[in-house]
Specification:
The structure is a homotetramer of 243-residue chains.
Chain A (H helix, E strand, L loop, with lengths): L2 E7 L3 H4 L1 H6 L4 H10 L4 E7 L9 H5 L3 E5 L9 H14 L2 E5 L6 H7 L6 E3 L6 E5 L13 E4 L4 E3 L9 E8 L4 E10 L2 E6 L12 H14 L10 E2 L4 H4 L1
Parallel strand pairs in A: 1-2, 1-3, 3-4, 4-11
Antiparallel strand pairs in A: 5-8, 6-7, 6-9, 9-10, 10-11
Helix pairs in contact in A: 5-6
């Protein structure tokens, strides 16, 4: 079974920051999409903020099994209609959603979580992140050792204002002493949502083998497995036996 | 320690439907508030939709430990600014929130849940609800037997589109064969949220001793226990030891 | 990828109760195994209580991806060494476990849950069970409508003394008015555990298309997806970078 | 309302290790009990392993609202009958249980969790632990800032083989780079269970103001709030209305 992935990217930093442009000459979305394309199970496309309707038309979403989301500097530019459409697609149609790094502050993620999604943060070139597997056996950490290290990353620290996750599959420590729930999952309606922390735009995080493996696993795990039956509304007495 | 409860009520049905007016001559809010006032631990006030700012000014909310919410016919009339204020008070300041019956479709509840909060329903005068305790020992069901019965209630049926609750303390069956997770709790930020299903406006539900007991317990349980420390934002390396 | 399923069955009722013998002439295990064998993804075998070591040797378990468990009248006859071996296989090696019906009182399930696993029950030939999907979109209910009906089943009623499930995918109502969390999942160590309620030995439950579909889905969902990395014990300072 | 706390302690290290004897001349249990006695809400007693029945007779447990547990070197010496009695008291009667530090490997905790409860560890005199609040607003962290530091502690590292907690209220980082879910809660039957990590016997951890505050809060939170109604067993059709 093929999984139709749409890699959504804000795609602004690459156009203004030479450091980012050099690291990701085709954009972060192409680094992610390029990796996924190596696996035939994925049918990969991309969408970016500056396309019409942020690249996420009704038709596009209707043909997406899993959407990945990276945004940072322009969360406010995503039209509310697109946000509503994405959230409705997740909860009512079971589209999977993988939220990456600074996507924690996207309108989409905040709407689905119902909390501020705020956190502590620090950009420091000497910061090192160690990510620890806290749910071995979970499909999302398949092929990952008990921990892995990113030599340079932005720090995100607790308290991370999210609803208690259904699963915490990774917890990070940073050189500065902070900790963070870096890998979390939730269900919302018929849809599965994954958060995965790493991916600051000024570091080569999306070329790291462990990071790419988690992304690949997460997309597989979040994909819907078939039709979703959601029935709501008024029912007359006796309907239960008649269907 | 005193708990400051604000009983919020839409208060529209009582003004237009003689059945409701007869059952609740002072409004549903006064039936609930009247019960709570018997217990000295509660400092009770009410607020209704047709007051300025829906009765929920900044000052009012700043002096509320737990807010109870009943709405049905006029969810859309609650100003978005009030909704944002209530949700912010829950997640960032730890105000407790008890959502009653048709409040499942309120803007406040939907915003905090992030899902459609939709369900099946039926108004049938012969419908009987049996509520089963599924978390004995939980403070919210203290003083409740292993089940209790409401001879006449509206039916709500699964699937109820809510995030997986942290605790399901009551599950109902209805004469028509449906089931419903009638008592649920969640944490959002520093705040505790409780949903409690019964309470259709055309039935004397808010005079039932078991219903009133659950409401009383839920308000106590959802009350904040002290100051909430939420710290977010940028941190320089080394700050950890200096605070 | 093939999934190696071992269908374990107590296999005692069939030998002493003519009603059960007539319904399941080759035993309940063969009704379940026979269905699974139709799907090539499953590599199916069976094991029963009266085989040496209850049919669950170290070698057998080492070659089992998912174990299904039906027991009722002879829970006490399962050797403790077998119980320990099964639980260790689940938590430390990620073997999936599907516990059926009266298996709720098996030593294996009670050890993994840590609670009494007690409940209310009634055998009544007129009892009808309606099972409602409470987690649409979950792989275990793929292909199931929003509810299904079993015309004759034993009643199980709440309170069911289990740890709060990670997912409740089905809730039942019974003609007598009781409710029950009939479909639940938990993670224990690297292993996934599923409980699925129906299956009283005197009813043809294991020939019902919906019941068989849920069993098939649950076995797929509980199967491990690869190697599980669990590392414990003493670590010297500095080991983190050296692995 | 008074809370009857029994502080249980293995009390062996103090008798053989001069470092521990000097730090805790009356034993770790007296350091904890001494702090709790300052608050009139607690009715405090102690019990130790070398008393008859490990100090935990039926009568003692029947008069205990919350039991705290510290053990390390002699888990195997706790009689199985005492373990069964404690677990039964938690699940069937709602006694609260606070498990401290190396109590993670006690028979009582392992039986209630159903997993190995294993972890990584290191004794290193230079190890520093930083504990981060991950559930602000929870009663157990009332009065605690967003983090606190213990200058010298034993390291415990993930993966900690426990069932997904209902709440994770503290996560630690250690100087060596490891992380640990240091504060967790679960419900088992009618009882509340809390795990709190710090407390190695060779460090003055049980004199730390933050540690003592968490212990005090946890005991209050885990205390039962009234009678627990657990009803199981056979029920005739029609019983639902007759009780």
């Amino acid at each position: 079974m093929s999984i139709r992935v749409t890699v959504w990217h804000e795609y602004r930093h690459e156009k203004t920051n030479p450091v980012v442009a050099k690291l990701y000459p085709q954009g972060i979305h192409e680094a992610i999409a390029g990796h996924l394309r190596k696996n035939k199970v994925f049918n990969v496309s991309t969408a970016t903020l500056d396309e019409p309707q942020a690249g996420l038309t009704d038709e596009k979403l209707a043909n997406t099994d899993v959407l990945t989301w990276w945004g940072h500097t322009a969360h406010g530019d995503v039209p509310d209609a697109v946000v509503d459409r994405v959230c409705e697609r997740v909860t009512q149609h079971g589209m999977g959603l993988l939220v990456l790094h600074s996507g924690h502050f996207s309108k989409v993620f905040k709407k689905l979580m119902g909390t501020s999604c705020d956190l502590k943060w620090r950009e420091d070139p000497t910061e090192r992140e160690i990510l620890w597997v806290t749910r071995p056996g979970h499909p999302i950490v398949q092929g990952i050792d008990d921990h892995f290290i990113l030599d340079h990353e932005e720090m995100y620290g607790e308290f991370f204002d999210i609803p208690e996750p259904e699963t915490v599959y990774l917890i990070s420590s940073f050189s500065g002493g902070e900790v963070f729930r870096s890998g979390c999952t939730w269900t919302r309606g018929a849809g599965k949502i994954v958060y995965f922390r790493p991916g600051h735009e000024t570091f080569p995080t999306y070329y790291d083998a462990n990071v790419l493996k988690v992304i690949e696993n997460a997309v597989k795990w979040a994909a819907p497995t078939g039709e979703n039956v959601l029935k709501f509304g008024n029912r007359k007495r006796g309907w239960v036996e008649k269907t």
